[in-house]
Structures are given as structure tokens and as C-alpha cells.
Amino acid sequence: MQLIGDFYRDQILRRNDLVYRQIPVDLYEPPEIIEHLFGWELRSDGSVVDCRSEVEARYLQIFVELGLHEVAVPDSEEYLKKILPDLEYLKNRVDEILTEYLETVFDPRIKLKVRRQVYAEITNPTQQ
Known about the structure:
Low-confidence stretches: none
Strand order of the largest sheet: 2-3-4
Structural class: alpha+beta
Number of strands: 5
Helix content: 40-55%
Largest sheet: 3 strands, antiparallel
Shape: globular
Distance between the termini: 16 Å
Strand content: 15-25%
Number of domains: 1
Radius of gyration: 15 Å
């Protein structure tokens, strides 16, 4: 299985149309995607990030959940639509595996700590 960091390096960072976005990180509450009159927004930890589309909000949501503070976002909406399913699959697969392995851990603090450590490990691209 490809790591999210490798996917990010290979599919995103190699593009020349990137916009870097600062995103809030809340490790205790899941971020929310909300549609409003003027578009989409991602809410996390009391902060709001305006997004140009639901696709961009879903893209940013993944990285908020992974604990990243800054994310490169491709400017092309079509490219975001193309890569989002793969990125969501990788994130969901990691969450499924973590949930399965952490079933026997009863302390929520330890679960959160392990989850953070795994997220940090998988978001760092391996060296080629």
C-alpha cells in the first residue's frame, strides 16, 4: 500500500500550479464541511477555511485529520477531482487498519497518541 506522504510527493508536489494553504488542526474534533450561500467552508477547532468547492474542502479535510498545518493544493479543480478518490481511499484504509489494531486499547489518550504517531509517519514521504 502506498503511503500518503509518497502519494502527496508524487501526485501533488510535482505540479507547478500549487497554492499553499494554512489549515487549522484540531486533533479532538473532526472537521466539518459546510455549504453556505457563498460557497464551501471547512470548520475545525473554531477556525474556518473558505474553499472554492466541495472537492477542495474534502481534500483539505483529509490533511486536517492527518494533523498537517500547511498543504499544497493544486489549482486545477479537474486534477483535484481526479486524485481525490485515491487520496480518500488511502486515508480510509489507514483509518480502518488503525481502528482494527486499536480495538484492544481502552485508554482514549493512548489511542489518540498512537493515531497521531502513525499519521506523522505516513505523511512523511520516503526517500527515493
